[in-house]
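Why run this: before we spend reagent on co-expression, it is cheaper to look at a predicted model of the complex and decide which construct boundaries make sense. The entries below are exactly what would go into the expression plan.
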Amino acid sequence: MSKIIGESLPNIPWQERGDKKGPVWRYDNNPIIGRDGNKVSNSVFNSAVVPFGKGFAGIFRCDSKSISMDIFVGFSDDGIHWKIEDEPITFTGADEEILRNEYRYDPRVCKIDDKYYITWCNGYHAPTIGVGYTTDFKHFVQLENAFLPFNRNGVLFPRKINDLYVMLSRPSDNGHTPFGDIFISQSKDMEFWGKHRYVFGTVHGNDSAWQSTKVGAGPIPIETDEGWLLIYHGVITTCNGFVYRMGVALLDKDEPWKVKARSKDYILAPYEYYECVGDVPNVTFPCAALTDADTGRIAIYYGCADTVTGLAFTTVDDLMQHLREHSL
Amino acid sequence: MSKIIGESLPNIPWQERGDKKGPVWRYDNNPIIGRDGNKVSNSVFNSAVVPFGKGFAGIFRCDSKSISMDIFVGFSDDGIHWKIEDEPITFTGADEEILRNEYRYDPRVCKIDDKYYITWCNGYHAPTIGVGYTTDFKHFVQLENAFLPFNRNGVLFPRKINDLYVMLSRPSDNGHTPFGDIFISQSKDMEFWGKHRYVFGTVHGNDSAWQSTKVGAGPIPIETDEGWLLIYHGVITTCNGFVYRMGVALLDKDEPWKVKARSKDYILAPYEYYECVGDVPNVTFPCAALTDADTGRIAIYYGCADTVTGLAFTTVDDLMQHLREHSL
Amino acid sequence: MSKIIGESLPNIPWQERGDKKGPVWRYDNNPIIGRDGNKVSNSVFNSAVVPFGKGFAGIFRCDSKSISMDIFVGFSDDGIHWKIEDEPITFTGADEEILRNEYRYDPRVCKIDDKYYITWCNGYHAPTIGVGYTTDFKHFVQLENAFLPFNRNGVLFPRKINDLYVMLSRPSDNGHTPFGDIFISQSKDMEFWGKHRYVFGTVHGNDSAWQSTKVGAGPIPIETDEGWLLIYHGVITTCNGFVYRMGVALLDKDEPWKVKARSKDYILAPYEYYECVGDVPNVTFPCAALTDADTGRIAIYYGCADTVTGLAFTTVDDLMQHLREHSL
Amino acid sequence: MSKIIGESLPNIPWQERGDKKGPVWRYDNNPIIGRDGNKVSNSVFNSAVVPFGKGFAGIFRCDSKSISMDIFVGFSDDGIHWKIEDEPITFTGADEEILRNEYRYDPRVCKIDDKYYITWCNGYHAPTIGVGYTTDFKHFVQLENAFLPFNRNGVLFPRKINDLYVMLSRPSDNGHTPFGDIFISQSKDMEFWGKHRYVFGTVHGNDSAWQSTKVGAGPIPIETDEGWLLIYHGVITTCNGFVYRMGVALLDKDEPWKVKARSKDYILAPYEYYECVGDVPNVTFPCAALTDADTGRIAIYYGCADTVTGLAFTTVDDLMQHLREHSL
Amino acid sequence: MSKIIGESLPNIPWQERGDKKGPVWRYDNNPIIGRDGNKVSNSVFNSAVVPFGKGFAGIFRCDSKSISMDIFVGFSDDGIHWKIEDEPITFTGADEEILRNEYRYDPRVCKIDDKYYITWCNGYHAPTIGVGYTTDFKHFVQLENAFLPFNRNGVLFPRKINDLYVMLSRPSDNGHTPFGDIFISQSKDMEFWGKHRYVFGTVHGNDSAWQSTKVGAGPIPIETDEGWLLIYHGVITTCNGFVYRMGVALLDKDEPWKVKARSKDYILAPYEYYECVGDVPNVTFPCAALTDADTGRIAIYYGCADTVTGLAFTTVDDLMQHLREHSL
Amino acid sequence: MSKIIGESLPNIPWQERGDKKGPVWRYDNNPIIGRDGNKVSNSVFNSAVVPFGKGFAGIFRCDSKSISMDIFVGFSDDGIHWKIEDEPITFTGADEEILRNEYRYDPRVCKIDDKYYITWCNGYHAPTIGVGYTTDFKHFVQLENAFLPFNRNGVLFPRKINDLYVMLSRPSDNGHTPFGDIFISQSKDMEFWGKHRYVFGTVHGNDSAWQSTKVGAGPIPIETDEGWLLIYHGVITTCNGFVYRMGVALLDKDEPWKVKARSKDYILAPYEYYECVGDVPNVTFPCAALTDADTGRIAIYYGCADTVTGLAFTTVDDLMQHLREHSL
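The model came back. Tokens follow.
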């Protein structure tokens, strides 16, 4: 039995496995958020949620009906039914140069101490990692971009390690990047980043081809007594395009660039209509996970076909067992 | 209240909006033409219809079961139920060299005076704009190709402007062209074309990314008291291919290369199964519109997933309002 | 009336045409094998079956949940309900160097005399044609790879011709090959191959565009009194990827590199959900056919969307008629 | 003995063949214009000259030291030593929209009656064919662009044929076009163009691979008693890029889209240092030819390596003999 | 008259302009270092030199005869004749993980206070910016990589600005990057970097096409009374590959991400044989500059055709004049 | 001291090393065959020579002035001055189907017993390995193509090994193949080939990047007391195209798919003008070697820039020493 190190979340969204197989199972009423998540949305996906107050708050990627990509606040009592605002987030605080907003997408939210840090893919002449925070999901302060372009999928750890803030990211290029490994970077102050280390990359050959084109961090890493559980996405290139699937890895607690285990088998993949059909077919893209330390329950929020938002469930034990049985 | 300048069409196919949202709403019984539109068809899409006699006539793109692309005549009493001939159109009249028929696709039909002009993508060593006409949809006369290759989406205006015939087109390359802007050309005689002008092109950046790869004219422009309403297609390149959506623009009445307004938000996009799944997933491609000047009603015919034909409805006021509220 | 030259197979899986059109019709309960064909499978497709004992045996391509490609034995009483083993095939016999197993996919099974020969796409530094045999579907002997890389879709004839074993194949490159013609090779001993001849290739222009990108042999050729019936796949490149369809050709009985007839129209194409949606959308890929010489019935097994396995039916007369009426 | 139909030009630049082989021979003092053709030039190439007054005038492509492409007037007494102006040409007369000047390159000059018509690759949202004229090489009037984009290498015939102006061109795409055939277009008024016909294209296979990627017209066609002599460029794609060579064709006098003969062997190819080394290695690109009807002499001006300008010589008889002996 | 703010260097390598034109002129005896710069070299280029002791020291990119890329120390009395060591540099000090050495190339050397900082393109799973220093060119200490991959052309400023170290770089992809803008990053400690700002990028259109594909910083910026003079490389894509040329920009002294002037015309380009012919034709790539504050003399070291090393000269006044007369 | 196992060749072309460095040195009067090797040639390169009679015979690749690729016989007294026939080789004997001649290039000649076997890249619907023989260089018999397409650089061993003929080749694709490893195939009869084995491939990373894109066998392997010396070509992809260099490997005498040593450093690379400039810049491509068993001398014939033919010298000891000192 593994233990999640974190807070209890008795109201975590949850549905028992029933007769569903596999390390992760879908919510029966998926998708939980459809195309019309707010008034302007063409699609709502690749979004991040956290416990907030008595319920939940989230930062959502809504592509508008002009297909402009931006991030919006939303709230929910139960983590399943969401009310998303119709206006995108406004940040204050950073240098004017940084507050310029070319585009924003694929947010993550990470609570560190009393702040909810938001990271997202931020258009500053090219995609890089934007960083900001809020304490109330009403006022948002933007900090410096963490890195130079080109970068995507910046994911913070929920506490300092060795007195340094730690962020995963996936250096990219300026298009639909056909490569991508996960690196880690460290910072004293959330402003200057360094001590970059390679974490893990794509897998060549036939062993684990679902993650042969690129891999990128998904939800905020989950601290356990055995290390950090990292749910991530992996991509293969078929003759008809990319397929995005989900995997899991276990990173060393103190040196999280050291990989203790990593899934050879995916943990979720496009099977359902809403995952296979949409603006970008065949995408399951995890961006957030809620956890309950008491029960070990994990609820994963993931984008489906770049169109809608799905919810899936697992437990820390299910993931650990998967890592033991289906590891690279 | 805007006015369509044109004929009344009391028998225009029509279904009220009901509780559907957006500037354009789908017909409940879509697709109106399935794969088996005629005996040889693999798919029927990107086709053009006009009022004719007491009912309607149309020129249909049917890809055969050998996936050869050709155009066929069809007739309908109500604009919804169509009988399409099993043999493709035969033209007479033009130079032998021009009558050669490598392939024909994506027709438009435009009534000017008493002739129904047909334009289509015509294979003459490469794709260019074929031009012909009929008065009875039985006999068809082919004229010279309007332009040099490579060109697609040639769309005539329904009357001369400044004493010249006017045609929109989208210059292309010899493949699945990853670029494309709309130009206008003018002619005294439908044979020699010149005075080419740029009309509008793709939109860079995040503002209106659905039209960032290419744009091309759709149905024959609709004359209104405020200018020409042009329904067009716009394309984005995702990591898994193109998505074709619909937009609308308002062109100056006398200098139609001047754009008075242009939609930032799309007006229709692949949402339904028959639009998202098919020989080419994620395509909604408008090629014709019926209008009723009395009511301002507009019925749009559009190809779905390069496989079947859909019908959607709007009004001149809905489109004008969309242009006012969601303009670039 | 054409005749299949071969054995009777009174228990051939069969369903009457009913009111279905076209030369080939689908089984109503398709797909007959879903994603969960065995314990490890992500997908089961592009697989080969033969009569064996009182029922049927087969070699199945199961991509695992790590998306590793391998081949597995399965058995069935009725050819429809299959039990597939959970462990991939183990070969013995060949040189150690050849027994190395980088990946294996797209198997075919061909009974010649008393041996069931298996050919597949075999990873030996790159894709080439692996060859092995079994007599009992329990013990498997691997022979030398037939060819140098890069090759795929190696398909044996079910008897020697002119005292030589004969194999079709589709030379390829090292990726999602955007070209491909069918060649034939000959051998005295199943070890050394030569006398390579071109059989047929892609079709340019508008005549038969469904087979304009690549073509490759499907099931073991079916001997008839008029020649060898070859069911094959053809591929077109759309702006959103490849579409795989099925065709049929008639090859000369004694000089099978001579094509007597070849279908201009496809005989089956992706129409159904399970053919259009899946890990690789829009694929129908035939790999095996059962035949009953008494009735002329043919049951075709084909991969659907690189995800599941479908079954379709036809007769030798239906195919011959198709070739007469829709030939290139 | 063939005859050039045209004016005498006793002062045509000329150098006897000496012991040089081949249908065309180089001037000993090549290049005749170096990189520093005028004050701003990085390179001077792909330029056009005509007899003018007692000497010669020309329109030169000079790429500046900012590598902006523009066209400049130059004058010469002997056709070999040139004085090129330091300011690019200014046109008047056309619609403001057309006078916009994004870029201009690869000019040709064609005397028809008393006007010197200039055609060039004109940047109007994309490359197309600009048209203008002068009578004195001091004042320049610009007309409408002949065609829609994308087009290059527009070359006029030196007189009307069948009462129509006639222009060759090579439809292109928006990059370093990897394809290209020669078409012909016709006009009553130099403003509206139509009756487009295919002239000739690339050659597939091994027969004449130097012209397998693209072909385009070079100098103004030379009228002879046997038809129009067209010197053109042909391009092959090697693993290290394009190689541009020169060929010759004979077009029908009255229906110049009919090809009477066409060279299988090139007539000039990059051999010399200044042709093989420069801003674009391995280019010989002919844009102009002077002819003397009395002697049959032809002086060809050609761009070398997109860097400097070369001069080469031939005679109408040499070219006709080449066409007889080395024709496709 | 502009002033270089820096040290005197009376022994700066120098040759008067003579009758050479342009803002920069070549040394008559170029290349100063040939292919055989040391025992193992295939080529010596893109290298950095600084005054050291009574002469000069340098860090040289030598590609070996196995075409492995590494950096080597060299020394010279006069800055022209160099003795380069046969063994590559060995660093100590950094984390083992960082000392791993996949490849190293394109070094720059920057004296800040009493340390000579070296930056280079460092292979750490992918190209990024390696950082180290020496005080004696015998012992070398490596620091953390400045950035995540993918990055190249990291160039330090020779003093802190606003109490921060400042580095220019050109974020890239994992191949022969076809894009590239210059960004600036800042650091308190040479270990953690942030406050990334865009400096300048490529130029679209015809204005300055030599820098339309990518731009990257070259030598250490030269401080003047008017700001920082930055010599940089710009690249255009021709149909036969990239051409690398040199330009100059003037950056604001205190906010060096603000561009005060930038050259429209290049200042040096491949003209000479050793620049046009070599392992990569048509490359002039500046990596170092010596300056003499007393006279304003500047000696530029630049790689030629990725094969040999050239030397060129200019003065601060020549560059400032160029910026005044040929600015974007 | 190593020994060549073979015949004496006292009249081997030879020039002492002088002060030239490296394992292989060039002939001073290179190129020995220019562009005008015969009457029709545009270029003569990638050609094969053998001792014959009192002098030498060869099979030459001459690309004609139409850039058609074919092979021609030539003779020489001294191996340096060659007389090449003006008509390409005519074969007899094989199946009509095989005698079809789409194109032929890059020949090798291998004496086995009393026959001179010729292998070349043969156009049979696509590139594959043609095989023929002669005894007198007047009459030529063509055999079956050894392999299916796509293949190039087929190189025979000069005697049977383990009673089987043995051939190296480099499987390819249908273009300017950007990959390529060396395989070996075996045959009892020169007609049916099998027992294909991987020999060696490209080298990833920085260790030996000159051979990172593709490698292919060059001259007939040279038998020595230590194994087979194989001179081969290796290719790197720069931003401006491929560079072809030469390396050497030592293969096991009895199991020649086993590599005993392989050069990390190239043995010859494009340095000279005639190697760096030509129809394909930067190519040195070895196709033949003469050897003298008495002295250990080796004379290598190699194509230069796909334009002319060069000669270079080495000895078995030089190559063995290179392998000892610069091995992977």
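The mean pLDDT of chain B is 97. Helices of chain B lie at 96-99, 273-276, 316-325. Bring this page to Monday's planning discussion.
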